[in-house]
Write a structure and sequence with these properties.
Length: about 350
């Protein structure tokens, strides 16, 4: 198979971690007989420095033509970078919103998987995590409250702000289908999270999700109110397989779920559109505090590349080979600084990448 991948190294640790992920993909290609071609584009602070904008039209067009996009991270030090005190549309992060919108990425997938080797980093009691948990949050990314009409007015002398939450059945159906498709490849359970006891949009969400479920009789569907879900995530995370939810609930719940896995340097993500196309990136930011020191953890980006193989290219065996290699390296006791504990072997970003690619086998 030949795959054209646009890479966006971005700012801070972005170039270091994307480099390692590309080398891992190259090695996977060698082992399994695929060709991965990489075409870098600029986005974020580096694009502002070069072109004056966080994402040029040309860069976006190049990304649109790719089979998939691999992103590191963009942005400078919060509150203290040359890109901070400028208009919002000229900040590095504006590039992220522009590319998500430009590529129609409505489905955000964030797996929360606890490696046994990192169980001590999980803030939950050992009896709650048992032999670990493995769930994925499927969040609607381009609708709901964050994209609704908003305004602030003075009403009867009182400053009043309004945000609107809108979903139509098409938007709900397409994200529900994604969640059920993903569940079919996993443990076949979808927990749809809403606030149907209060919100009309949630009632529609529930109705459409039940309609979609009829096409997937093998998948168990349960509904859960969002407040209960927030509680269940820390009480019994092992009950979840696929959590399907709308934009704002997903924003909050995915951060909660990801934090109980212990380290931000381990968390991958994918944003997909209606085709097989996707943008894959670690859940963390550009970590300017550790940039250029070869101490960043590249695993989140490497696992994001594994998601790319699975979701954009249907290369599930190859994706599993990458995940197995990561597991092996952790079992052998190698740790980057963010996940280091006494008694283990501390390695840098480049070395971690090398250890992982050396363990990729068919
Ligand atoms: P951050 O995620 O970059 O860093 C938070 C902390 O986690 C830091 O101490 C950092 O050193 C550490 N960290 C993050 N990734 C790591 C890794 N792979 N290995 C080891 N340690 C890691 O969050 P922040 O400091 O709030 O934001 C920094 C910049 O990143 C900001 O400009 C922000 O806007 C941007 N940001 C970008 C994205 C993105 O590109 N998708 C996402 C979030 C934040």
């Amino acid at each position: 198979m030949k795959c054209n991948i646009v890479t966006i190294p971005g700012d801070g640790i972005g170039p270091e971690i994307v480099r390692e992920a590309c080398l891992v993909l190259e090695k996977t290609g060698e082992v399994f007989g695929h060709e991965f071609h990489f075409q870098p584009i600029l986005m974020g602070g580096c694009s502002i420095d070069r072109y004056g904008v966080p994402l040029t039209d040309e860069a976006l067009e190049t990304a649109k033509k790719a089979d998939a996009v691999l992103l590191g991270a963009v942005g400078g030090k919060v509150g203290n970078s040359k890109w901070y005190d400028v208009a919002p549309n000229l900040r590095p992060e504006a590039g992220l919103l522009a590319i998500r919108k430009g590529l129609g990425l409505f489905a955000n997938l964030r797996p929360a998987y606890l490696y046994q080797e990192l169980a001590k980093a999980c803030p939950l009691k050992p009896e709650l995590i048992g032999d670990g948990f493995d769930m994925i949050i499927v969040r609607e990314l381009t609708g709901g409250l964050y994209f609704g009409e908003r305004h602030t007015d003075v009403v009867d002398g009182v400053e009043t702000a309004v945000d609107t939450l809108t979903y139509n059945e098409k938007e709900i159906r397409r994200i529900a289908v994604k969640a059920f498709e993903i569940a079919m490849k996993r443990r076949k359970k979808v927990t749809s999270v809403d606030k149907a006891n209060v919100l009309d949009s949630s009632r529609l969400w529930r109705k459409v999700t039940e309609e979609v479920a009829k096409d997937y009789p093998e998948v168990e569907l349960e509904h859960m109110l969002v407040d209960n879900c927030a509680m269940q995530l820390v009480m019994n995370p092992r009950q979840f397989d696929v959590i399907l939810t709308e934009n704002m609930f997903g924003d909050i719940l995915s951060d909660e779920a990801s934090m109980i896995t212990g380290s931000i340097g381990m968390l991958s993500s994918a944003s997909l559109n209606e085709t097989k196309f996707g943008l894959y990136e670690p859940s963390h930011g550009s970590a300017p505090d550790i940039a250029g020191q070869d101490i960043a953890n590249p695993i989140a980006t490497i696992l994001s590349a594994a998601m790319m193989l699975s979701y954009s290219f249907d290369l599930d065996r190859e994706a599993q080979a990458i995940r197995d290699a990561v597991q092996k390296v952790l079992t052998e006791g190698y740790r980057t600084a963010d996940i280091y504990q006494e008694g283990f072997t501390k390695v840098g970003c480049g070395k971690m990448g090398e250890l992982i690619r050396d363990r990729i086998v068919k």
